Amino acid sequence: MFSVTTAAGKRYAVKCFTRNIPDQEKRYRAVSDHLRTLPHRWKIGFDYQPTGIMVSGESYPILRMEWVEAVSLIRWIEGHLGDREALLTLARHFAEMVDDLARAGIAHGDLQHGNLLVTPNGSLKLVDYDGMYVPALAGMPATEHGHRHYQPPGRANAGFGPDLDRFSNWLIYFSLVAISMDVTLWHTLHEPGGEHLLLTDADFADVSTSTRMAALMRHHVPDIGRLATQVADLATRPLSALPDLIPLPEISVPAPSKPAPAQPGLPPWMAGHVTRVSPPPPVPVPLGDHHRLVRWTRLTMLGLGIATALSAVMIAVTGLAACVMATLGLALALLSSRATYAFLPEHKIRKAIADQHRQAHRHTNVAAKTTASLEKERDRQQADDSRQAQASSKEMQDLRQRQRHELDAFDRTTTERLSPFNAHIMSVSAKEREEINDALALLQQEFVISYLKRFVLRSGHVTGIGEGTVASLRAHGITTPADFTDVVYTAGGYGQRPEVHIVLAHGRSVHVHGVGETRAVALREWRRAHLDRAMRQPGLPTALPQTKFQQIEARWAAERRRIEVQRDAVRQDRASHRVALAQKQAQEMKQRTDKHNLRTRSATLAAQDINRRISEERMRHQALIQEEQDLLRELQAYRHVSYGRFLRRVLLGTVST
């Protein structure tokens, strides 16, 4: 995918295809024609160009698409974790888009995070229409099977039709709702950089052993558990049997902590994050007249001054002593006025407010440090949970693989034990067929011999054989074709012709005087002609008599049964041991799954607890900041209440504002 900008400043996304798709142009034309009739905001414009790019002198197609400023679904989720309202709104928009697709009778074919873009205003855009189904493409095969983490196990066997997205619809909607209800699920179930939301194809392949699925199905939020159970059930059904997405009418979520009050002119989500604009300074509280205290203070200071002066004269001290006495008198006068100022109600109120402000400031600093410490603890916990989730997933995969290898090894070993029995049974069957064939061949041989004995050799029956040769043959017991089987030649001495020998029926060969090569060939052809006629006789046996056949069959059947009994005993032993092994593995898997579920549950509760504590501490911090600001504002109201002003009033009688 490339971004290009035209000379006119128009920006497009350009896709180059890496594989040949049958009828690609026809498919895109059908999709374009159908989408053109739809008014929905989630679609993007595109233009299929069959000769859009040239490489090494050869043209290839491209797809030019409208450029959209948006981010993929996973990036958007990571940027809005904790913003429940935004996540629920996106889930609602997704359900509306799914409803649009269903009403239009179309399916995207590959609904997943990479093909769902979210714009800055929170709207959805659907991209990549390579595998989209529209009614005009009915009857054609699918060109792809979708992202593996968003499809049920049976997707590869499903047809190409409007129900392609049904599982993906439920999965994505459920994931968005679950994350909005419990953000810790993202940290515990989503692997950083993973090509999935909360669940993977491994979780769909074996729902009963999936730790992720178990954590979701047993979640304390009822809607999460119910939707997870439904998704787990849908993963076991064919796509054609899945229902359309039915979004939740209401979302039941445990009540969140009370948020900081929204400030005028700000949206609710900014409450607690923006310092409130301070109102105008408060009306200053003036220093009261306090005529009696002022007069009493004046008199006291005057009396102390006179008494000090008289004391200095009376003791007739030096000038230096008088200076010291004057200074002492002034100090006593100031202390007296200061003591009087401490009794003023305005000063008491100002001092109390100042003490409260200092205390609130200390508490604010402590709350800020506590919040930062909790956030660090949460980050460490989330990192640990993520590592633990990856380790748990790896552990479960290793366990499944080990158990699969264990079963495979068991099957191979037990199959090897059964192989000799199967081979023995096949050998028995082969021997049975051989005995039947041999018995039939013997019957046929007896018939042929009987037939051949009917033809007695006489002079003139065979070319070149007269009375003398017939007599010589008879002398060796050869009177019919049944009396010999073949003619062979034995090499003679140097320069001598080969000697002809006739092979008798019982296997011995004889040399008959007067039978040379020519007569031997004639005898052989004479026998072969009678043998051919014998094999064509209608009386030639073609099957064993039923009694003989049953005798042979019964004998070998008993041998087969004996072997089969032994084999069945091994099979039964194998089956019982395999059941025991499967039960042992299931128990092991259950223990491991329960352990992982407990760990996931503990991690989820711990994450919820620390998030709750952070939220409470943030609210407390904001409240302390507000309290500190309110106290500071109250303190500003007493900015004209001071000892200096009081002293000027005592000495001068007036106080400037």
Automatic annotation (TrEMBL):
<keyword id="KW-0175">Coiled coil</keyword>
<keyword id="KW-0812">Transmembrane</keyword>
<keyword id="KW-0472">Membrane</keyword>
<feature type="transmembrane region" description="Helical">
    <location>
        <begin position="302"/>
        <end position="335"/>
    </location>
</feature>
<feature type="compositionally biased region" description="Basic and acidic residues">
    <location>
        <begin position="395"/>
        <end position="413"/>
    </location>
</feature>
<feature type="domain" description="Protein kinase">
    <location>
        <begin position="1"/>
        <end position="270"/>
    </location>
</feature>
<feature type="coiled-coil region">
    <location>
        <begin position="572"/>
        <end position="627"/>
    </location>
</feature>
<protein>
    <recommendedName>
        <fullName>Protein kinase domain-containing protein</fullName>
    </recommendedName>
</protein>
<keyword id="KW-1133">Transmembrane helix</keyword>
<feature type="compositionally biased region" description="Basic and acidic residues">
    <location>
        <begin position="374"/>
        <end position="387"/>
    </location>
</feature>
<feature type="region of interest" description="Disordered">
    <location>
        <begin position="355"/>
        <end position="413"/>
    </location>
</feature>
<dbReference type="InterPro" id="IPR000719">
    <property type="entry name" value="Prot_kinase_dom"/>
</dbReference>
<dbReference type="InterPro" id="IPR011009">
    <property type="entry name" value="Kinase-like_dom_sf"/>
</dbReference>
